[in-house]
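Moderator note: this is an archived Q&A kept for reference. The question asked for a predicted structure of one protein chain; the sequence and the answer are reproduced below.
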Amino acid sequence: MMFPAPAFCVRLVSLLVLALALSGCAGLSPEKQAERNRQLDDYRAGLRALRGGDLLTARQRFDNATLTLGGLSVGDKTAKEARNYFKEESRKNFRGEPYERAMAFYYRGILYWMDGEPDNARACFRSAAVQDMAPEIGITEADWTLLDYLDGFATVKLHGDGKDQLQRARKESRINPPPDYDPQANVLVFYECGTGPTKYSTGEYGEQLRFRTGSAPGSLLQLVVNGQTHKFGPYDDLTYQATTRGGRVMDHVLAGKAVFKSGTDAFGDAAVISGAILAAGGQGSRGAADEVGFGLLAAGLISKAISAATTPSADTRTWDNLPNFLGFAALRVPPGAHSLQVQFQNPQGQPLTTRTLDFQVLAGRDTVLFVSDRNQ
């Protein structure tokens, strides 16, 4: 049997190494990059619009986002590609971590309630809760206090019984337990504060997705309307939600790719060294040791190339204008024009930010207000 000459083996291996290296270094066109970040752009722009009072844009952006999430990964080639060992996580179309996807539905639910559609709002809050579940690993319940509480409140507004949702919300509460529902409350205040968690990667290959804790100096809310003062605390912490699924702390590690990379890299080292020793040991005409040596050398170089092309780094793209705390208040206010003084306070009750909102209450309809300490 004839074996290829050593020079030919080297050329063949060089071509294979070059091909693998080029496949791993291929960049994205500006159009493809924009498409991969389109969902993230909708998240950010939708929230900016909501905070700025541009409800039309907010609806459009969150409609885009939630419609995409409704077909999550269905027919999405980039999601399939990202599962390939030679595709970076950040090359897939952005969908976000579960807490980010939940927040898109949450904001769309607020907008529906603003439009006098508590039924659609409830559907959004339920869809948000689904994002926190992971049946494939046994997590079949969400643990967002506010999502269950709002699900039940909308149910009460629709003349149903929200007792089960209220019970779940209180069971899940880790910050402030929510109060009983008041069916007669007609001014609903959704509020948020602070700066949400951000992502970073650790590990030998950057394969471990971690979160930096968000912050919220002014986590308490004081509302003054018609001479009456009301104080509220937040119900949900987005840093907690980012690092858990259904209450279970998650280890965000792309272990499959990292193990594959380290395995191929180690094999490559061993094969290259062994092959070089065997190939160098032959004298005169090439013998079996030469042939095995060149074969190992080739296999080792190819394995090293595969290892170099494997990209297990975590996707650290972040919905970076999210808050850290979420809260809700329900008030009874008579029909007519009113002013609401909103004050964010630190945990010691000291005021940090104060603003006034003018609003109109119509008989027979809920007035929904959105307040953020980052309102534009």
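Archived answer notes: The first strand starts at residue 187 and ends at 193.
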